[in-house]
Amino acid sequence: MNSRERVELAINHKEADVVPSDLGATVMTSLHTKSYANLRHYLGYPEVNIRLRDVVQQLVVVDDDIRDHFKVDVTGFKPNPSTRSAAVKIIDEIPGYTSFTDEWGIGWKMPKDNGWYYDVYHFPWRRDDLTVKDIENYAWPDPADPARFVGMREKVQHAVEVEKRAVIVGGVCAGFVEMAGWLFGYENYLADFVTAPELLECFFDKLLDYKIAYWEKMLAEVGDLVSVALESDDLGSQRDLLFSPRMYRTFVKPRHKKLYEFIKSKSRAKVFLHSCGAIRKVIPDLIEAGVDILNPVQVSCVGMDSAELKHEYGKDMTFWGGGVDTQHVLGDGTVQEVKDEVRRRIDDLAPGGGFVFATVHAIQGNVPPQNVEAVWKTLQEYGVYGR
Prior knowledge:
By secondary structure, the protein is an alpha/beta fold. Helices cover 42% and strands 12% of the residues.
């Protein structure tokens, strides 16, 4: 059985020979550049020119030698930089920081000394006199910029036909509420659900059109080849949703539903939603909206017990992640504690298929390489169906 077949069985809720796995096919399943360098050295692989998959989080493109070492089943692609974002330069105009402004006009900065990732410092729409016209007339990036798609067909075809791996392809930008937070400012957009709903309605509708324009072009290129289409929208905090289920159902769910229906109308791909946090209250809504796959399955959050999630939603939703808690166990635990955690999550999530093994979000820069190795060794030893 090849990797593509293995993943296809899993996302269709069937057991394969072993539990399929992902390391680095998405931003959310990658590694911080520091942990990746340490891992390569620990495993005895040569130094390479480490490529960043995500500049903000300092997450890497995982090289083929490491993916082969851990027998990873998924290859992932995100769109190429647009013409506008390709021109973005990292600068050092802020004392003590490096910074850049992305294609949306959002400003990001990272400390020069011991910086781990970039934080937002400039929110383009954070002002009290913002109007619907301001949103409509803003210099929006071009979702269908041809630069985003150059060589995409050839890369995906090689992964599917030569590597025999399943392919997941990423969206053009973050989700509705994530983008709102970065553009409006977090306090402003959360208040706008009540105080200025017309602003959010306008933005969400324009962003829906923006995303559909991107997916129309991307799926015309590779929709017949990809197994999974990735979208993201962080809806939860450590303890609860960021806003009420009613607000989700009013403002976000209808747009999610339209977007996911469009993706499915243009491809055979399953819809993958990345949403961090304690989101259990709206998982039934996500299923109704068309989500097939949930990531990262943040098991350390309130209400996100892996066994309970599998029991309640495992027939309708594939869990892509949840394989090991990255908040506490992976970075701070012993090798044995990591192994025990991986076994527990496999026991909870693997039966009946519907599980692609990955860590709970990206592996951070403080994670010891022996712990990373322990994760995949345990998966290979324990994640066997019919054992």
